[in-house]
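Repro case for the chain-ordering regression, as requested:
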Amino acid sequence: MQRLSRIWIFLLLLAGPLAAFGAADLEINTPAINNIRSSMQARHGQLAPHFASGAVGLTRDGMVAVRDANLVPLANRQAVNALVSAENQDRAGLYREIARANGHPEWEADIRATFAQRWIERAQPGWWYQAPTGAWARK
Amino acid sequence: MNRIRIYLVAAVAAAPLLAGCVTINIYFPAAAAEKAADRIIDEVWQTQKQEGKSDASARPKSEGQPSPAAPTK
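-- result from build under test --
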């Protein structure tokens, strides 16, 4: 009887941390992820006016894209393209690194899909985003 | 013999527990991912005043010398 209760205690001790681990937050504090976060935050100041003008929009796959280059003065178009491609590189890296930091590289697509939804959900009024059909819409 | 039975009972009892834990970890934790996404979006877009985290905005005040307010006659 004493042995049985000892086994039960062992099982409970085992189950507790495992259950907690399963319910825990995702790891988003690795050096690689933090680098990308601060790089994106620094870039946002330059990108925000283009979101507001509608030149750049949020795509349905969690990236950004030049939606209407005509809204950018010719002289600035190159710079906007560079901003967009740098941002997309960071975003792809962010999704990949979060998946990897949590021990599930195969979660990358799910993480990207989650972010895609949340970026659009949190976008400011007037910003453009891509609907699931691929058509552009304005918040 | 009795000991074997006890271990058997323990193993049977443990199976669903362990299976539950494994299940939680294999399936994508959508709610946790959403929370993580929101935290990162807040930070990148500065959409929310972050308590404690963004000391960049809090620092200028604390670093400014408090003396200008003090001397009054």
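Ordering looks correct now. Strands of chain A lie at 56-58, 64-66, 128-130, 136-138.
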